[in-house]
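Final report, Chapter 2: Outcomes

The project's central promise was a pipeline that accepts a single protein chain and returns its three-dimensional structure in a standardized token representation, suitable for archiving and comparison. That pipeline is now operational. To close this chapter, we reproduce one record exactly as it appears in the project archive, with the input sequence first and the structure output second.
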Amino acid sequence: MRKYDIYLLEKEVAYHYYGREQVLYHFFVEAVQPVPALIHTIDKQLHYITQVIPKVVFEFELKKIDSYRMRYNLKKESRKLMLSSEHSMVILEKKERKLTLISTGNFEAETLLFEHLRNVENTFIAINIEGNSIGWLSPIKQAHYI
């Protein structure tokens, strides 16, 4: 079983921390298990660097998944999506400022959802705390000046 917390970062934060993802990883680990004295401060910082995940965008992308689901069973609720096939299953749950993705089996269904999310915005970042990993769903292109 793999679990990812997916956040939509503010664009200026994403551009500033591109290439410095480990700093963000340590922040999100602290946000999950904050020191009691820092709960309020970390919560304010989390609200400052992340965006609310728009419901309309989330539902629009779910409609796209419908068109690809020939091999998948798709079950939708207001804030939850379950996509499963013979060899993989993924549950995507939407909260105000994050998505939680839990997957089992091979990576096929998980990859399908990641692909659709990266088409929504390029500042989504996925954190796997148990796996000690962090990564952009869509790498940010840096401007090159001549």
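Archive annotation: The two ends are 46 Å apart (CA to CA).
This record, like all others produced under the grant, will remain available to the consortium after the project formally closes.
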